[in-house]
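As a warm-up, study this chain.
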Amino acid sequence: MKYGRMTPGGRELSSVLVVFSLELVTKSDELGVCDPSPTVTIQVDFSFDCLIQAMEANCRQQDHEERPGMTEPHFEYRIRESVRAKYMSLRVTVDRGLEVVVPRGFDRKLIPIFLRDKHDWVQSALSKVDQARQRRVPPTQTLPMTVSFPACDRSWTVQYLPRQSGTITLFDDGLGGLRISGAVDNIAACHSVLQRWTRRQAFNVLNPLLRKLSVETGIAFVKTAIRCQKSRWGSCSSSGTISLNQKLLFVAPDLVRYVLIHELCHMRQMNHSRHFWKLVGQYYPDYRRARQRLKEAWYQMPDWAG
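Now compare it with the structure written out below.
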């Protein structure tokens, strides 16, 4: 539906989008359907009158001489155009700072208006991101001597066997020992082979748990996918695929249960409405506490885990 209105100066205001989403991601990226890194997602539905007021104010500003320092917000940001975006959204991340995501064809002249309008939110989000950066453990170029998965209460010792080879192989002896051989002085390559092994372990652990919970809740899904993501604990597609982060192996079993229930509930409610949270609460009553604990869990990930 097209909205139009005349400004006091006689200009016609063109059609605009009336939904504007704000998102704070204090680790790396959005969590999607499941809260990963310390993340706050806020959806703001602007009334048409509020938008018109903002645009009228912009028109009045254009009618007068622009004041220094008022044409742009007082913080740096980057603009990313997305073919999948339906609305303009703000994302504040540890890695990229403030990012404005816009759909194709979006009038970029509107961006500074909304940034000024949401100045306090952005400043608060940037402050939280700065705090997250300070809490971040700097990556270390070391090789783990043990690997522990609290999710399934298992541990392995790791041996590194240098050999004259351009490749690196990992052997699991099935008795709690891992042997990595080859160019083991290549730390990044050793991390990579450990991550691939972790993905296989994650499928072996998480897929049966998900299927068990599916029976327990009576909520069906199609298949399980394992990923190594920077900020999503899990996600659910409309086709029925539930994707789980292999890093779930590093968190407590009860938190794994929460994530799996969270994703299963998305098979009924592909949103985060009150109906969705009511459904989650039926199977995991203390979900609010679990969400907070998951945010803290990101800071406990070993640096080699990816």
